[in-house]
Amino acid sequence: QFLPLGVVTCSAALSACERGEQWQRAMYLLARMRVSGPRPNVISVNAAMSACERGQQWPLALHLFEELGKSGPRPDTISHNVAMSALGKGAHWADAMQLLRDLPARRLRPSSASYSIASNF
């Protein structure tokens, strides 16, 4: 018999997918979490976004970003950073810079990573 997985365990698995650029596995796990639980938190979704972005699936990473806050947890600075990086990979630099400018209006503070990502455009 299997023990139910917690969100921390699932987030760790998603982070492993991120590091291994296994975006398909990350998306599968995220989908399973949404159906069977545990409910994904922002860390889980960020890891799945990052796995997609690193796996050159930037449109999918942006799709996950757009879903945040609608049907899931509220995006944080890391969510925005991953989305900015994905937009940059898609050559949508103006949109990436707009995300950076939008952070204060969303009551989020840009991190040093935010500025580092923006400096690559």
Report the helical percentage: 55-70%
- As a percent range, the share of strand residues is under 5%
* Run of helices and strands: HHHHHHH
Rg estimate, integer Å: 14 Å
Q: Mean pLDDT, as a whole number?
A: 91
Q: Structural class of the secondary structure composition?
A: mainly alpha
Residue ranges: pLDDT <50 for 5 or more in a row?
none
How widely separated are the two ends?
50 Å
Task: Estimate the global geometry from the Cα principal axes.
Answer: globular
Query: How many helix segments?
Result: 7
Main beta-sheet strand count, sense and barrel state: none
Description of the structure:
This protein is mainly α. It has 7 helices and no strands. The protein has helices at residues 7-19, 23-36, 42-54, 58-67, 77-89, 93-102, 112-119. Helix 1 packs parallel to helix 3 (42-54). The chain starts with 6 loop residues before the first helix and ends with a helix.
Which terms would index this structure?
121 residues, mainly alpha, 7 helices, 0% strand, globular
Task: Detail the topology: elements first, then pairings.
Layout: H1 7-19, H2 23-36, H3 42-54, H4 58-67, H5 77-89, H6 93-102, H7 112-119
Helix pairs in contact: 1-2, 1-3, 2-3, 3-4, 3-5, 4-5, 5-6, 5-7
Give a quick precis of the structure.
The protein contains 7 helices and no strands. By secondary structure, it is mainly alpha-helical.
